[in-house]
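Appendix B. Raw example, untouched.
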Amino acid sequence: MSNYELWNQEKEIFKKEMSFTLFKIGAIKIGKFKLTSGKESPYYMDLRVLPSYPKIFDRVTDLYVRCFEEEIKGEEINRIVGIPTAGIPLATLISQKMDMPMVYYRGKRKEHGTGKIVEGEIEEGDHVVLIDDVITTGKSILNCFFDLKELGVLVEGILCLLDREEWDKNFFRENGIKVIEIIKSKELFRMLGEMNLLKKEELEKIYDYMSAQSFR
């Protein structure tokens, strides 16, 4: 068996473990929620709770590191960038584990002091990977990409734990950027359903919602 096949097997175990754990700590919520995009969703992904569970947080960031090493990392990558808000604590711990410098994207330029849009040491010509928790519309990622491009920084990859599959990845792929979504919505709810953690009517509402979205 190749290293790639072994990694895929290991990742599947990680994904099942994380799906169960995130549901149990309330990071995956079922109900009726209004998203930033204005859409009403039957589920909500809230990974801001992770730092409140240090051992789980440690385990999640181990998964990020492995995905980084197995699926993204190249010798030219010399920074990771945390996307606000939940991507910042994730990127901080990943940075420590990988001994790789980290900066974070503000999302909005400071109107005082240095007026930075990115905090930390970053230079023209740097090659970076963006770290996020959940990607819904992809707007934050896209804004970060263009702001970094303006600084002369090259984005080599995007790494997130949960992907709602409601954003267009084609732009990034066409620009040679690796997009790694560790757990996709369809996989997540399939696994939760197989573990009998959700009621039949809850799954039906979720699948109806998904079928109405533009998944890519």
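End of appendix B.
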